[in-house]
Amino acid sequence: MIHVLLEILQVIFIIGVSPLIQGIVKRTKAILQGRQGPSVWQPYYDLHKYLNKDEVLSIHASWLFLITPYVVFVTMIAVVAMIPVFITHTLLSFTGQLMLVVYLFGLSRFFTALAGIDTGSSFGAMGSSRDMFVSALAEPVLFITLLAIALPMKTTNLTLITSRAVTGHSPLLSPTFYLAFLAFLILVITETGRIPIDNPDTHLELTMIHEGMILEYSGKRLGLMMWSAWIKQAIMFTLLLDFCFPWGISLVVHGSMLIASFIMVFLKLTVIAIVIAFVEMSYAKIRFFRIPRLLSAAFALSIISILTNFLL
Amino acid sequence: MKISRIIVAPHELIHACRTVIANHGRFITMVASDECGREIDRFVVRYIFAHDGKSMLNVVESVLTESNCSYPTLSSMIPAASWAEREAHDLFGIFPEGHPDLRPLVLHDDWPEGVYPLRKDYALREKQERDSFSSWSYPKVEGEGVFEVPVGPIHAGVIEPGHFRFQVMGDSVLHLEAKLFYTHRGIEKRSEGMSVVKGLYLAERICGVCSVSHALSYVQAIEQISETRVPERAIFLRVLFAELERLYNHVGDIGNMCAGIGYAYAVNHGAHLKEQLMQLNDFIVGHRFLRGSIALGGVTEDITEEKLRYIETTLERVKKEFNEIVEQILSHDIVVNRFSNTGILSERIARELSTVGPTARASNYDIDVRRDLPYAAYDQLVFEVPTFMEGDVMARFKQRFLEARQSFQIIEQVINRTPKGDIRVPIGDLIPYSFGIGMTESPRGENVHFVMVGENNTIYRYRVRSAPYANWPAVPICVPGNIIPDFPLINKSFELCYACCDR
């Protein structure tokens, strides 16, 4: 019983803390730019605003446009239910979980892209077409990278991967770890739509990818789309922590250990958010047709990681 | 500056202009006017050419009667004349025979046909019923996989209105059509009958960021008519204001270009430097955009020795920071990759379209009014005019950087060499129906003001050929072959103003 409660708490934690992570990234970027920037709580105010606002819907919008935010949001919650945050146990746990994560991301992306085209706005369609271009490359790379991580653990069950990572030898000694870590970092940036792939802060419609697809949304649905994007970001960060820096994640249900692990996870998420802000600040957006190169670098890294795993 | 006039019959226009061009005349613009008020039947077209380095302008004039107000087009010989002839067609109803593209330019398709607002018999506040269902015609690309992307006139950022039609294949642009003049305010019509003193305030408000340059062009045109000799101290101070304007624009634009590629570090540091320069402007003349600094016959306010020293120390600080930031930007390999070979304007097109300013110079078209047709105190100062061969975004970026560095030097010379004395002289009465042409180099290129005065020191006809007006036609030509996400960057690298193009 206590397990289930904790597992539900884990899901609520990620959903609840995801706007804060976004806030930390934004605030850090502002400080690095020499600005004061909005408070780290701003995404919560935004969310509150969107969820209480009226919507403006295009007369061309079909049911697809209307249900997409719910599909995307529910998909993200389903993924959250599968990833260990501060205990290794999760609500959903089975072999092949890792594959399902990739496909659930694919599902949400599929619906978002269709919704972008649905209203007939040229910016939405441009965003969708670009997102499909990027994801056609990013998805297989994500697959291979996850495989590179799963291989040394000899399972595709996330609970097992994490618990083996916690108990096993320090991964810092293995070259497999560094290669897979770099590949995964590139994917985190791609999947969260950040510079140098996409620019989440731009107002230039012509350069948008993710923002272009959700340009026609307003009010509650926009709120849900934004929240889903933040949750996805929190998921990617948590996965990075689970795979590469799992220290402190609690294996058993024990009072003081849980509190320690909770604090650790929170600190680690903050650090990752700050690191991502630094990465974003030190780069500019790369030329659109150069994105494949970056992703093929991630691909090559994961392949080498898999090979070293067999060789060493 | 000397103006030599060549008056010919309409059918001799082409021949006369060809002769002027053969004598190294550089086409500047065409000014049409309705001169029925001075007993001329009725329209006059004036093609203006500059002789760089000789301080001389050629004006080829021809009178068109009301019964037969058509003339042979020069656009096929001088592509740069196309816009001016289309504009005259819209506003005066005079017809350039054989013009390759006579679609409406200034007044959009919703304007009723046969109504010409710049004719003298059109009342200033006369309203017209607009036909909002009229369609806009433009060339289209057809074929499988070709799509059209309409953008604007309202954009997501707080910027001026312009409509762009991209014909694309995937993300690659095949053709771009730009529709401007959404902010046509009828400034030229409004000025008619205004006293020349009031006209200066209007000139300053043509554009926000080139206030000094527009004001200076205007007062130079008037001073040319009245043959006023502006005091030495005033011409040096004019240079000071003009260069301060160039500086805050170039520094701001350099940061702003990086916004096109999401390089936030450069954007914010550029904005920070621009702010320091604008606060300096505010401190010395009491206006962040330097408005109200130029007066007819001189400048409005003297700059004390103390203020000059303050300018010196501030600029010293800004210059150091500016160099550091540009070095940082240019050593970033993503920036270099995005800027290089993007939006190339070839030298041939830059010349044919008579582009001006940093845009022209970055495409190896070496023109600069400050050196070629010197005004104010520029002939007494030492400076270089940098140029680049490439004509891409990178060249325009570096062009602004090098020009800003020259501006720092020019200001330094002005601070140390400004003589003592008067800052203003009265301009006296103006001979009715004489005209003057004022030219200055704004941060975006040469601003040309044609002013013809009427009776009692009023304006009879005022025509502004701003730098963006000359450069806008080049933008849609540079874009095909690039991808849509590069358009904001290309557009920012030209940094053209809509308001002073539309007037």
TrEMBL record, chain A:
<dbReference type="InterPro" id="IPR052561">
    <property type="entry name" value="ComplexI_Subunit1"/>
</dbReference>
<feature type="transmembrane region" description="Helical">
    <location>
        <begin position="230"/>
        <end position="249"/>
    </location>
</feature>
<keyword id="KW-0472">Membrane</keyword>
<protein>
    <submittedName>
        <fullName>Formate hydrogenlyase subunit 4</fullName>
    </submittedName>
</protein>
<feature type="transmembrane region" description="Helical">
    <location>
        <begin position="291"/>
        <end position="311"/>
    </location>
</feature>
<dbReference type="InterPro" id="IPR001694">
    <property type="entry name" value="NADH_UbQ_OxRdtase_su1/FPO"/>
</dbReference>
<feature type="transmembrane region" description="Helical">
    <location>
        <begin position="63"/>
        <end position="87"/>
    </location>
</feature>
<dbReference type="Pfam" id="PF00146">
    <property type="entry name" value="NADHdh"/>
</dbReference>
<keyword id="KW-0456">Lyase</keyword>
<feature type="transmembrane region" description="Helical">
    <location>
        <begin position="255"/>
        <end position="279"/>
    </location>
</feature>
<feature type="transmembrane region" description="Helical">
    <location>
        <begin position="132"/>
        <end position="152"/>
    </location>
</feature>
<dbReference type="GO" id="GO:0016829">
    <property type="term" value="F:lyase activity"/>
</dbReference>
<feature type="transmembrane region" description="Helical">
    <location>
        <begin position="6"/>
        <end position="25"/>
    </location>
</feature>
<dbReference type="GO" id="GO:0005886">
    <property type="term" value="C:plasma membrane"/>
</dbReference>
<keyword id="KW-0812">Transmembrane</keyword>
<feature type="transmembrane region" description="Helical">
    <location>
        <begin position="172"/>
        <end position="190"/>
    </location>
</feature>
<keyword id="KW-1133">Transmembrane helix</keyword>
UniProtKB/TrEMBL annotation, chain B:
<dbReference type="InterPro" id="IPR020396">
    <property type="entry name" value="NADH_UbQ_OxRdtase_CS"/>
</dbReference>
<feature type="binding site">
    <location>
        <position position="500"/>
    </location>
    <ligand>
        <name>Fe cation</name>
    </ligand>
</feature>
<dbReference type="GO" id="GO:0008901">
    <property type="term" value="F:ferredoxin hydrogenase activity"/>
</dbReference>
<dbReference type="GO" id="GO:0016651">
    <property type="term" value="F:oxidoreductase activity, acting on NAD(P)H"/>
</dbReference>
<dbReference type="Pfam" id="PF00346">
    <property type="entry name" value="Complex1_49kDa"/>
</dbReference>
<dbReference type="Pfam" id="PF00374">
    <property type="entry name" value="NiFeSe_Hases"/>
</dbReference>
<dbReference type="InterPro" id="IPR001135">
    <property type="entry name" value="NADH_Q_OxRdtase_suD"/>
</dbReference>
<feature type="domain" description="NADH:ubiquinone oxidoreductase 30kDa subunit">
    <location>
        <begin position="7"/>
        <end position="127"/>
    </location>
</feature>
<dbReference type="GO" id="GO:0048038">
    <property type="term" value="F:quinone binding"/>
</dbReference>
<dbReference type="InterPro" id="IPR001501">
    <property type="entry name" value="Ni-dep_hyd_lsu"/>
</dbReference>
<dbReference type="GO" id="GO:0051287">
    <property type="term" value="F:NAD binding"/>
</dbReference>
<feature type="binding site">
    <location>
        <position position="188"/>
    </location>
    <ligand>
        <name>Mg(2+)</name>
    </ligand>
</feature>
<feature type="binding site">
    <location>
        <position position="497"/>
    </location>
    <ligand>
        <name>Ni(2+)</name>
    </ligand>
</feature>
<keyword id="KW-0520">NAD</keyword>
<dbReference type="GO" id="GO:0005886">
    <property type="term" value="C:plasma membrane"/>
</dbReference>
<dbReference type="InterPro" id="IPR029014">
    <property type="entry name" value="NiFe-Hase_large"/>
</dbReference>
<feature type="domain" description="NADH-quinone oxidoreductase subunit D">
    <location>
        <begin position="270"/>
        <end position="425"/>
    </location>
</feature>
<keyword id="KW-0560">Oxidoreductase</keyword>
<dbReference type="GO" id="GO:0016151">
    <property type="term" value="F:nickel cation binding"/>
</dbReference>
<feature type="domain" description="NADH-quinone oxidoreductase subunit D">
    <location>
        <begin position="438"/>
        <end position="503"/>
    </location>
</feature>
<feature type="binding site">
    <location>
        <position position="464"/>
    </location>
    <ligand>
        <name>Mg(2+)</name>
    </ligand>
</feature>
<dbReference type="InterPro" id="IPR037232">
    <property type="entry name" value="NADH_quin_OxRdtase_su_C/D-like"/>
</dbReference>
